Amino acid sequence: MKILMNYRPNFINHIIDKDLKSKKHTNVRTRFPPEPNGYLHIGHAKAICLNFGIAQYYHGQCNLRFDDTNPEKEHKEYVESIKYDIQWLGFMWHGDVHYSSDYIEELYDYAIKLIKKGLAYVDELSIDEIKKYRGTLTRSGKNSPYRSRSIKENLIYFSKMRNGDFLEGKACLRAKINMASPSMVMRDPVLYRIKYTPHHRIGKNWCIYPTYDFSHCISDAIEGITHSLCTLEFQENRILYNWILNNIDINTHPAQYEFSRLNLKYIITSKRKLNILVTKNIVDGWDDPRMPTISGLRRRGYTARSIREFCHRIGISKQESQIELSLLESCIRADLNKHAPRLMAVINPMKIIINNLPVGYEEKIEMPNHPNNSDMGVRHVIFSQEIFIDRFDFCEILNNNECYKLTFGQEIRLRYAYVIKAEGVKKDKNGNIICIYCSYDPFTLHKNPVGGRKITRVIHWVSATRNISAEFRLYDKLFIHPNPAVASNLIANINPNSLIISQGVVEENIIHSYSSGPYQIEREGYFILDHHYSKKSYLVFNRTVTLKESKN
Ligand code: ATP
Ligand code: MG
């Protein structure tokens, strides 16, 4: 496996180092175990970088295992997207893809084993009754009346469950542990439930499915996982993880360790909640560029390298925290600043007519594709008598904080081109400016004007005659609530300005370029061509990120 990760050792490495030193293990095997009930998000990227990163670091293996024992929510589409996203992030799993559903027979046999040991029973309480009987943190639970069934009876009833003799919700298999345990997960947890929804891989062959608690530890053991890494909410389940493995007489015993999940401000990292946004058409699918999914970030212009760098910077610990969105943005900015070729585009076009150039005048101007990397070459951009600038870059009367703008009587430089000066405007009958008349100084191409005139202001531009029309999609946070996961109403917290669409122009060179980007559009930010909506005749750009961190 190629080392891709800029890997920073963490507390889990200390554990593994010890295990290797004591010869508890001679090889390290981790796994990434997504449930195929949605697309991967940025939180999963953290778990992916950790699990695959550890395997790379120790020259071990990382398995990909779909935790697919919940047929109602799982689909093949999600399986395919997850496989794609992992590889796009730069990782490859060891050997074949695994599925918990591959082990369905073995898991069933282990359940039988527990029954035969008197450690599991078929319960016929309803889900609500099970909850009621469970008790609370301060009150111990109550035994189910079905708890005292004989082993023989349990074997019969469990096989009836498997044969489809019970309706959904009418019976389940529970571990027989301790209804008074201080640990709620040990109060006779459910191991199997009935589900008649066909499974995306095994169809209608089975109608009973193991719970996460039962299938996860056994799948880890079957695959010879040495270190099973999961997020902190499973800390409490660790005791059950070990109880099951200790009682099924399996000869490998992986160890579970927990780390804190990624929480990002203004971002949701729950497939279930992201699914609501998709099914209610609040967003344009799982890969909407505002979604924190890997596919959304990719469509937005994020690179795999920048996401890995982000995971590297946040590190791994047991500390719960909420990371600022600006950290993720600074990673993509740093990456694109270095790697993205430059391009000129005007998002809110306003025409400029240069008075002292002949009508139809055109001139090729050379520009670097990257100001600090000459290896990226140069391109030629047409400068013409009529050009577009951004209408917000002009003001008839400047306010104090607008000194970077074009205005009457003051000179300004067109990026990589000439110095111009505004001399007049044409307005429509409502007083709106339709075009600006300027003069240009023909002796200022790539050099300062004579007479010591200092030009500090620079604006971007595009030829008004040689350009391509384009749509620019400017994104902002999808939620206005800094912690949307706790907001009482997810939909009410959607940012109404999360997408602003603007019609503008881009330099003609884009049609000769073979790359969809990302580009740095001078002064406007980093952009990528949207692969869904862009056509040869109609370009749509997604803004990945602004050039600088916004102040709000
Ligand atoms: P979701 O609620 O989004 O479905 P999940 O934890 O149920 O999250 P899984 O598909 O079961 O999703 O997760 C696969 C792996 O990714 C698990 O090991 C899980 O702990 C890890 N993971 C999920 N979300 C995060 C997160 N926000 N930060 C770090 N790891 C995460
Ligand atoms: Mg899950």
What would you note in describing this structure?
The protein is of the alpha/beta class. The chain has three domains: 104-211, Alpha-Beta Complex (Glutamyl-tRNA Synthetase, domain 3); 263-339 and 467-552, Glutamyl-trna Synthetase, Domain 2 (Glutamyl-tRNA Synthetase, domain 2), CATH 1.10.1160; 350-465, Ribosomal Protein L25, Chain P (Beta Barrel), CATH 2.40.240.10. Helices cover 25% and strands 23% of the residues. The protein has twelve helices and 25 strands. It has helices spanning 11-21, 42-57, 76-88, 104-116, 127-134, 151-163, 212-222, 238-247, 271-279, 294-300, 304-314, 325-339, and strands spanning 29-32, 61-66, 98-99, 120-123, 172-175, 190-194, 208-210, 227-231, 255-259, 342-343, 345-346, 349-354, 362-368, 378-384, 386-390, 411-414, 419-427, 433-441, 458-459, 462-463, 467-475, 499-507, 519-521, 525-529, 539-545. The strands form six sheets. A seven-stranded mixed β-sheet has the order 10-23-24-25-21-22-11. It has a seven-stranded mixed β-sheet with strand order 19-16-17-18-12-15-20, with no helix packed on it. Helix 8 (238-247) links the parallel strand 8 (227-231) and strand 9 (255-259). Helix 2 (42-57) packs across helix 11. The chain is elongated, with a radius of gyration of 31 Å. The two termini are 42 Å apart. The mean pLDDT is 95. Residues 33-35, 43-44, 46-47, 67, 230-231, 261-262, 269-272 line the site of adenosine-5'-triphosphate. The site of adenosine-5'-triphosphate has 16 residues, from helix 2, strand 8 and helix 9.
